[in-house]
Fold this protein.
Amino acid sequence: MFQRLRHLTTLESLSRDCIERLLDRAITMRDACAHGTRKLDLLNGRTILNLFFEPSTRTRTSFELAARRLGADVINFDIGFSSTAKGEELFDTLHTLEAMHLDAIVVRHKVSGTPDELVRHAMSGVSVVNAGDGNRAHPTQGLLDALTVRQHRPDFRQLTVVICGDVKHSRVARSDVHAFTKLGAREVRLCGPTALMPDQQEFPGCKFYDNFDQAIEGADVAIMLRLQKERMASTDLPDEAAYFREYGLDSRRLALAARGCMVMHPGPINRGIEIASEVADGPQSRILEQVGNGVFVRMAVLYEMLAR
Ligand code: NCD
């Protein structure tokens, strides 16, 4: 059944068809942009607000670029200079901004569930896109990761994906798991030190590992995660050198994976902690391709929501 996209807070509620439609649309956007230089006028007259309460480089700039390439107007709401810094409540900020006639709000917040709160409080007609909430979801990252993999390995039934690192605090891992399992990946493995692993019940379809050599064996895709110290209890903080030895991706470990295993990372990468430079910059790295695809996926999402 055709699922109209009104808001995007998590991939969990999207059907496989809807996810595939968004990925197909992202490819159409890529082709229509002719290498990203041409501006389309598909969202002329629409206004999109970027509301980022947490730092971001890739996600925020690519949402902005996506909106501009579609011809929309963009407002970047800088928290440091705004009234939220003076103690204004989130919903007062929201209603103030809404009075300026917005069509969509792209929100990133450290508290899981904030985008859903905005959906409940936003005026009808305003779409909400989650750009990362706490450790819960980062749906456009899940989509862009699936797109990057699909471009190289279109048959997901043959696919073994390993996600390694601080899975417990990672909204990227959660959205990736939703994307890859919905699209029919054969196996999704999660690996990390016990203190940084989530409850297994949260990921019923995944295989859990604490040994990275075993987890990466035969994998077609290795997605590395940053240690998200900002969300960790100080007792969870591993020693970085020891962490790299056990869970870092270097060329020795990559050789255990399937031939041509794709190396991915949502960024920002920490060289020498979760990934060695030789791998991050090596021939199997798809990290910059992920960044490029981020713009097309976000164009697809905004278009599906806002096109008349
Ligand atoms: C991720 C995030 O913010 O969740 N980064 C991103 O969006 N590119 C992952 C991270 O911060 O480690």
In short: Residues 58-59, 132, 138, 141, 171-172, 226, 228, 266-267 surround N-carbamoyl-L-aspartate (CB under 6 Å). The mean pLDDT is 93. The beta strands are 47-52, 73-78, 104-109, 127-133, 160-164, 187-191, 207-209, 221-224, 262-264. The longest helix spans residues 287-306.
